[in-house]
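FORM 7B: Structural annotation worksheet

SECTION A. Query
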Amino acid sequence: MLAILVPLDPISLGKQTSGRSKRTKKGQIAFGTAAILAAQGGTSSVRTPIPGLALFEEALARLELCMPPQREHCMRRENTTPRPHWRSEVEKLGLVFHHTEGRLYWDESVFYRLTLPQVDVLEDATNELSMLFIQALEHVIRNDLFPRLSIPPEAIPIVKWSWENREPALYGRVDLAYDGINPQKLLEYNADTPTALLEASVVQWLWLQEKFPHADQFNSIHERLVSTWAKFKGRLDGLLYFGYMDSGTGEDLMTITYLRDTAEEAGIRTKEIEMPDIGWNSGRGFVDLDENKITSIFKLYPWEWMLAEGFAAHLLEIYRQMNWIEPIWKMVLSNKGILPLMWELNPGHPNLLEAYADRPGTLHEYVRKPLLSREGSNIRLQTRERVIETSGPYGKEGYIYQAVASLPSLDGWYPVIGSWIIDGEAAGIGVRESATPITDHREKFVPHIIG
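SECTION B. Predicted structure
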């Protein structure tokens, strides 16, 4: 881990990716305390199941997962030789956090190989899920189901206004369980503050160009970000601030630095700012350290944390006078309480896992997740054979219970597909893998190819 983390200047992280495949502290502190408190806390048809056979069929499905003769059709994990100077190469692109807590994070000694048909179904499933999320959002708004998601009552009118005015959203990442054969299953949606973006976009693309120049990759993330920022340009007022919280790893700083690059490539002027450096001026609203008024901001800081700050009332008061990216309606979709609602609206959908609010329902094996959590914290995985539980500061808002997804185990690693949604459509994937079925902050990012 590098000890000194500085923004790359000039910002130029994505400039090398043109031609990519189409497959591809003045005043009062307004924000930052919620993050500190959190850190301190530590395609198949749908069949009607036959009574009595559901558990048996589920067990068979597990046994058949990537076993002969299906193995040749599975997503494959293959070994390769890392580039001689891979550390300096990825650091030049901003990936200074290639190790976390002494563990390897960016791992190019292996890669995942997918076929074009597998990528096609991943893309289709991601677009389908994007549509289902919007339908669920509208269902919540029409039926005032905000209490099920523990949305603060004072924020509800603004959430409704934000969606009714169709405030545009930039990006999100759906995490999927997929073995290359069976339908992809939605694990959750990182709709508000997704990371693992830099490595999914430019870092694995440059790795591909150097290691497998004649292969392809499901990756049009950079181009799609630039084109989406170009759509936003007309509604932004001058300077676009990029707010982040220094996590100590450099990940958030490098993420917003890369996003700034894509915005500037689209002709938008940008400036970074740490969330604690945003102040409140009763005459001007939110301001930077030089008392300049902030009218447009991208914030890599969760909406639930912002609404827990002392200046939340001011935020809601002037929300309509500013441009917020991501918009506040995204807090509905980033809440795991949306998953049981999606199952209620689409029971038996091949890309959804059975899910319930506050109780396991009919599930004998399940994953219990807090409505609001990050990086695998406060997760309980309960099966007949074992119980795995992670610690953390989350859970006071409540939990959901989700069916256990059949993650493939390849060489003892459990891969999760992070499928990126940009401007509402699928744009590419990144693969993260963990030594346990719960993906947490100790995961590894592994590149992929099509071929």
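SECTION C. Observations
The CA atoms of residues 77 and 411 lie 8 Å apart. Residues 1-26, 39-65 have pLDDT under 50 and may be disordered.

SECTION D. Sign-off
Analyst initials: ____
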